[in-house]
Amino acid sequence: MTTKVHPVSLPGGWPEDSSPRSAFLGLAPLGVSGDSFEDLASYFRRLGELHLMRPWTLAFRSVAPMIVGMSLTSRSHLADSCYGLSMNGVTEHAAKWVEALSALTLRNDLHLRTLLPLRDIVPALKLLSQTERYCPLCYSDDECNKRPRYNRLLWSLGCVQACPIHHVLLLEVGSLGSDEGRPFFLPGVSRLDGSSLAGEETGPATCEQSRMARMAADLLDDVHHHPDVFAGNCNPAPFLRFATDTLFGGVAMNFAQHLGVGKGELSNWMNGNVRPSLPRLLLIAYCCGCAVSDVILGNKVMLRRVTCSSTPAALTPRRRNGAGRPKEVLLTELQAIVHSGAVRNASEAADHLGVSDKHLRRLAPTLQGMLVQRGAESRRTNTVARREYRFGEFNRSFSALAAENGFLPSRRAVHQDVLKRTGIQFRFAEAQEFLRRAHTLVNTAGEHAMRRPSAGRPKRGNSPAADL
User: Fold this and answer.
1) Which of 47, 153, 178, 358 has a CA between 20 and 30 Å from the CA of residue 414?
2) CB under 8 Å to 397, separation ≥6 — which residues?
3) Which residues form the HTH cro/C1-type domain (predicted)?
């Protein structure tokens, strides 16, 4: 059972009729419009700098206990998310971050620094970007205006590819990976060498990319300033029917071809069975020459045809298209890769042929069974190899500590030495088993040493007494 920890609102001895005091130092989010709103992840990182703490430490000590209780493992997992973009999304995880930070800072506007206002307006599919991105010219403006560099909420939208202010493409933030640590965590600072990202070079964006980025920024503005208009009033179906009748004479097929989507997909939107995702809403608004808010609210406004030169990307691209090839060709290729050992299991063979696992099983059940068995053996071999490698590192520290101290070390001492030397951590049961194995090796080596004859002592069969 988890117990939530609540921040102290009044210091000890403070008058009870006084206004509450925040647990965190006061820090206001930056940005005043849809193209400049600061996102919550950037705000929290700057909050950590204000408290002279790394974001992970601040999250682990102050935020995580309010969300997941006092479990060290749960607190550690939640603190790890402070370096990502998940707190900017529309999930319950983001809502808990907003609730905790609102209680710690006594601010009531932090939910507007996430995509939570869009949760009931657009589907969550393809909404949040999977990687952190930035506009170097926006960082340069921050430096010129003597303000901290910060990340814009607009950059967290996966469908936004350009900066609507400078009309340049967004760049991805490079990282050394989780195993190398994160020495630089502030927005606008490279995680590779700590240099400013304001000097990075980027390419110009197309008119379509800049226009769609501006439309997404306007949507954030509209939701920010008029949340009551969108409450329970989001239905694009009337707009789509109106656009079909106005621009395409009531022919839905022509409208679908103009958007570059399938007729069935457009039909589901018009019938209200499926809500268009934000990338599709941007596409509809751009091709109809209106605002995204008009599409979402079903407004009947003045429309005009706008041709989109780029083909809309598939939201769930199909990775397998090999089922259309002749069966004989697939069988020949499958036999070749199986006998050559180019694949380790059935999934790799299916991906190589461009078919599904189910199709591969129907195509060649015998070969598929052979690949399944090969994959199981490969997994068992890899598991044993990983386990032996971990035991080797454990035994190495065990032997070194035993030789240094003159006695057999404890499990905790060995664990700490391995963690310091390699970064490997062991579960309690695993460490106990490795400790028993290490003791067995020591005892076995001791028995062999006692049985081994000494160099200066003659063997029993060659002693003078034996000759008598």
Assistant:
1) 178
2) 409, 414, 417, 418, 421
3) 255-295
Look at residue 141 and tell me whether its pLDDT is greater than 60.
yes
Taking Cα atoms as reference points, which of 373, 366, 385 lies closest to residue 345?
Answer: 373
pTM listed for this prediction: 0.67
Q: What CA–CA distance (Å, rounded) separates 143 from 439?
A: 61
Six-digit token pair at 367? 């070969």
Counting residues of the chain whose pLDDT is more than 90, the rounded percentage is: 50
Task: Give the pLDDT score at 317.
Answer: 53
Distance between CA atoms of 281 and 304, rounded to whole angstroms? Answer: 16
pLDDT band at 395 (very low <50, low <70, confident <90, very high): very high
Which residue, among 23, 38, 20, 156, has the nearest Cα to 86 in the 3D structure? 156
Please enumerate in sequence order all residues whose Cβ is within 8 A of that of 375, keeping only pairs 6 or more positions apart, or say none.
344, 345, 346, 347
Identify the residue with better confidence: 423 or 375.
Answer: 375
Query: Tokens 């208009």 identify what position?
Result: 229
Enumerate long-range contacts of 443-449, CB under 8 Å, 24 or more apart: none
Q: Contact at 8 Å (CB) between 39 and 113?
A: yes
Q: What is the spatial distance between Cα 113 and Cα 30, in angstroms, rounded to a whole number?
A: 10
Report d(CA 81, CA 76) in Å as an integer: 9
Q: How many CB atoms lie within 10 A of CB 384?
A: 10
Tell me the C-alpha distance between 120 and 233, whole Å.
Answer: 10
The CA distances from residue 365 to 327, 342, 360, 361, in Å, are 13, 19, 7, 5
Rounded mean pLDDT, 280-303: 94
- Helices 237-248 + 263-271 axis angle, to 10: 130
Instruction: Give me the helix-helix angle, 327-340 and 346-353, nearest 10°.
Output: 130
Give the tens place of pLDDT for each residue, 217-258: 999 999 999 989 998 888 999 999 999 999 999 999 999 999
Mean pLDDT of the region 60-82: 89
Residue whose C-alpha is closest to residue 82's, from 116, 48, 124: 48
Which pLDDT score, from 0 to 100, does residue 462 have? 46
Task: Find out whether 27 and 105 touch, Cβ atoms under 8 Å.
Answer: yes
Contacting residues for 105 by C-beta, under 8 A, at least 6 apart: 22, 23, 24, 26, 27, 47
Other CB atoms within 10 Å distance of the CB of residue 129: 19
